[in-house]
Design brief:
alpha/beta, Rossmann fold, six-stranded mixed beta sheet, two-stranded antiparallel ribbon, 8 helices, 40% helix, 18% strand
């Protein structure tokens, strides 16, 4: 079966949305290599959309670098990592290569961010292996609505290699720093016999500093000593109205606070020496685009995009 174009999205839900809006609801769900694809007609031609569920590829070191005892951790900084298919993504690679042989045009409808651009280049690499003559175009959108998706298809652009390389550089750094320090830590502790056989100490360039902050804060909470202090608060009656006020000063000794309170009670009359009035406009929070809302729900609340 030949297609006028293949639309590759980052999530199955977005792929389905493309099929729904472009076909007017008349699409057919099929499977290629076990991966759901949505087949539909648009302007008389047959098209298909597919979601890839994130990154297809990852970076790893060549096989000869896998022996921890033969390869010095420092040597890893001189080795160029290679791209490999991520675990569990083999079927998506197969499906994309089948589709690559069935079309001449691919629309890269990945998320409008750095990671989405990196995934777009991963898709290009996978599909070009099956069909080196493919033409690729990038669709850029921030909301999964009919208007946004159609507008993105009207304003296709070229994939941005610089944006993708930003994500790839981060992935290489994560791998190299994490692997080198993990091996160095593990081998050092292992030499002193302080590590059970088969165990290792993991270091992550992001996770480890964050863990330090978490542990530091936990230790501060555990060693925190409560201190009692006293403040002066008063209720001032002005005609039919009451005004509650509180002095910012904190007294460690109760008798000091009571002394100030007694002096205030003896005064009975107060004079307003200065009044400051501020007018503030509180703006409501900006609404999230659907894609960004799904991303945050997944990242911070562990809620899958479909449920969100």
């Amino acid at each position: 079966m030949l297609f006028d174009r293949v639309i590759v999205a980052e999530k199955p839900g977005v792929a389905k949305a493309f099929a729904l809006y472009l076909s007017g609801g008349k699409y057919e769900l099929r499977k290629i290599a076990g991966v759901p694809v949505y087949v539909f007609r648009r302007e008389g031609g047959l098209q298909v959309s597919v979601g890839v569920r994130g990154h297809l590829m990852d970076f790893d070191f060549p096989r000869e670098c896998n022996n921890w005892h033969r390869v010095d951790p420092l040597e890893l900084f001189e080795v160029d990592p290679v791209m490999v298919v991520r675990e569990g993504m083999g079927n998506y690679v197969k499906a994309l290569q089948v589709l690559a042989r069935s079309t001449s045009t691919v629309i890269l409808a990945l998320d409008a961010d750095v990671e989405g651009e990196a995934i777009a280049f991963e898709v290009m690499d996978v599909m070009r292996r099956a069909n080196p003559h493919l033409k690729f175009y990038r669709a850029w959108f921030s909301a999964v609505t009919r208007e946004d998706l159609i507008e993105a298809l009207r304003n296709l652009r070229a994939p941005n290699a610089r944006l993708a390389n930003k994500a790839f550089a981060r992935m290489v750094l994560d791998l190299t720093i994490g692997a080198a320090f993990t091996r160095a830590l593990t081998l050092t502790v292992e030499k002193h016999g302080a590590l059970p056989r088969g165990k290792f100490l993991s270091y992550g360039p992001c996770q480890t500093p964050v863990l330090y902050l978490v542990v530091k804060r936990a230790m501060e909470r555990e060693t925190f000593q409560k201190k009692k202090f006293f403040q002066i608060a008063a209720t001032v009656k002005i005609g039919k109205h009451e005004l509650k006020v509180r002095h910012d000063a904190k007294y460690e000794k109760r008798e000091d606070a009571e002394r100030v309170a007694r002096e205030l009670l003896r005064a009975r009359i107060g004079v307003v020496t200065n009044a400051l009035y501020e007018r503030k406009n509180v703006e409501p929070p900006e609404p999230l685009a659907t894609v960004e809302m799904e991303r945050r729900a997944s990242r911070f609340l562990n809620i899958r995009a479909k449920r969100a």
